[in-house]
Structures are given as structure tokens and as C-alpha cells.
Amino acid sequence: MDRREMMQSGVTLALATAGTSAMAQTGSAEHNHHHHHGGGASYWSLAGAAAGCTSAGQACLAHCVALLGQGDKDMAACAAKVSQMLATCEAMMKLAASDSKYVPKMAALTLAACKECGAECSMHAAKHQACKDCADACAVCGAECKKVSA
User: Fold this and answer.
1) Pick from 59, 147, 136: which is nearest to 96 by CA?
2) Distance CA 98, CA 103 (A)
3) Residue 33 domain flag
4) What CATH number has the domain bearing residue 134?
5) Do the beta carbons of residue 150 and residue 92 sit within 8 Å?
6) Is 63 exposed, middle or buried (0-12, 13-18, 19+ CB in 10 A)?
7) Are 107 and 73 a contacting pair, CB within 8 Å?
8) pLDDT tens per residue, the chain (150 residues)?
């Protein structure tokens, strides 16, 4: 399994988990009442983008930690930005999947974290594929966040 297949599997798993969690909160998969807080189906693309960013970020962070362990101190800022992005994207994914009323506010915060992380990772993208993948995922997630941010 190559890195791209692994990331896609992670996204699929994350969305399945989020969907299962959302169904458990409603009581059953047969629940037909739609309680939207303003997002609805548009939040599924945001949840997917956040899941993809989380998956790419985990790979990037692991890569940064490995390089830091080898003495490459240039990766410290990248690891810090990725860590912050991961915190926001994980929350964003869960809130978007559950159609939370907090999505617009969280999207604004996630957008800021994705911009910072993407900018930092872009500086390493030519040398490190994990950083390029993370920067690309941050751009996608940031664009989705911008559509709904408060």
C-alpha cells in the first residue's frame, strides 16, 4: 500500500467513524428528521477535507519527528504548525460530520491554522513529499473552511 492509498483509507475510516458517531447520536440510521443548523450536505465536503488534512498532517508530523530525531532542527516549526492544524482539523471534521451549529466559528479557526501550516509545509515541499502532501491538503481544507467560516 503506497502513501496515497494509506491516506485515502484514513479519510474513509475517519468519515465512516464520524458518520457512525452521528448516527449513534440520533438513535438510528433510520432517523429521517433533518435538524440542520445551516450547513447540511455542504458540511460533508468540509468533513472530508478536514479528514484528508488530518491524514496528511499525521504523516507529515511523523516525518518531522523522524527528521527532528536525526537532528534536523529546521523541521521544528513545521512540526509545531502541523500539530496545531491537526487539533483544529480533527475538531472540524467531527463538528462538520455532526452538522454542528459551531461549524462556522470552528471553520474560521481551522482556516487560520491551515493557512499557517500550509505556508510552513510549502517551504519544505520540494524536499519532503510528506510536507507537500500536507500543504496540498491544507489548501483544500482551507478552501472548504472559507466557504462556511463566520
Assistant:
1) 147
2) 9
3) no
4) 1.20.1270.360
5) no
6) buried
7) no
8) 454 454 454 544 444 444 444 444 444 444 444 444 444 457 899 999 999 999 999 999 999 999 999 999 999 999 999 999 999 999 999 999 999 999 999 999 999 999 999 999 999 999 999 999 999 999 999 999 999 987
Q: Which domain holds residue 48?
A: 41-148
Q: Count how many domains the chain has.
A: 1
Quote the CA–CA distance of 34 and 32 in Å, as a whole number.
Answer: 6
User: Is residue 8 a part of any domain in this protein?
Assistant: no
Yes or no: say if 96 and 46 are a contact pair by the CB < 8 Å rule.
yes
- Which amino acid is located at 72 in the chain? D
Is 51 inside any structural domain? yes
